[in-house]
Amino acid sequence: MRWVAAFLAAIGRTVLQTLAMIGRLTLYALDTISHMVRPPFYLKELLQSLMNVGYFSLPVVGLTAIFTGGALALQIYAGGARFNAEAVVPQIVAIGMVRELGPVLVGLMVAARVTSSIAAEIATMKVTEQIDALVTLSTHPMKYLTVPRVLAGLLMVPLLVGIGDIIGVMGGYMVATRTLGFNPGTYLKNTVDFIETLDVVSSLVKGAAFGFIATLLGCYFGMHTGRGAQGVGRATKSAVEAAAILILATNFVLTSLFFSI
Fold first, then answer.
1. pLDDT above 60 (res 20)
2. Closest by alpha carbon to 150, among 234, 80, 226, 52?
3. Where in the chain are the domains?
4. Are residues 218 and 181 in contact, defined by beta-carbon separation less than 8 angstroms?
């Protein structure tokens, strides 16, 4: 019976630790939102974060989207051929990229690139006591470090999602017209006619939510890192893992809200 009690105790500790972390993260998020609307504002840090989150993420987002759109077109054509439904390739590529694959893939790429970078940067600042130096200089760490990065995520990731959606659809267009024999004009017409306003709105809303999650978790785990190089490594790994899981969970919730029957 001892091993059963030990097993249940380990589960209980894990659950309590998880709930405690969720509580701390929620309070951190609320504190971040409250600081967004109160001065002072550090515009230089915001502009630098906009470049890091948005502009420098364009290459990886573009490559991911174009290859995904092309592969999606091939898969749908191969699957549709079994039922003589090859003509649905433009519609399914469009809805698949705009509703799901575009936002999710961009969110995961941002988590891999931006969340890890933010967590490692802030964790290194914490370990080397640079954050303590900010406090000594009467600079609020959350306003200087967290708010600009989270704002950049909220503003730039929806733009990345929109660009990724377009590039992904064009990737499917290129494969369909050059390899699968589709008429270019008909393909584009079917794509435009099938996409609805709600599809685009849901994609951009997901982008904003994923950008908030990715940047917030990078800042949170960076601020709460342990000491030494191992602490920085654990903070970076935990930030990326938590961001990826929370992005996928949030995607399910938002999809249910937008497209529930």
1. yes
2. 52
3. 1-38, 42-259
4. no
Q: Which SS3 state, helix, strand or coil, does residue 195 take?
A: coil
Rounded-to-integer distance, Cα 189 and Cα 91, Å: 10
For the ranges 10-14, 23-27, 168-172, 222-226, the maximum mean pLDDT occurs at 168-172
Residues in the chain: 261
Cβ proximity of 127 and 231 under 8 Å: yes
Q: Which of 106, 244, 213 is nearest to 165 (CA)?
A: 106
Tokens 């490594």 correspond to 233
- Residue 21: is it exposed, middle or buried by C-beta count within 10 angstroms (0-12/13-18/19+)? middle
Going along 94-140, which residue ranges are E strands? Answer: none
- Which amino acid would we find at residue 125? M
Residue 79: per-residue pLDDT = 81
| pLDDT tens digit sequence for 112-136 | 999 999 999 998 888 888 888 888 8
User: How many Å apart are CA 132 and CA 9, to the nearest integer?
Assistant: 37
Q: What is the pLDDT of residue 261?
A: 56
CA distances from 23 to 12, 190, 223, 243 (A): 16, 47, 16, 16
> Span 156-171, mean pLDDT?
93
Residue among 211, 212, 203 at smallest CA distance from 254: 203
Contacts of 97 (CB under 8 A, 6+ apart): 65, 68, 69, 72, 164, 165, 168, 169, 172
Tokens of 194: 């099938």
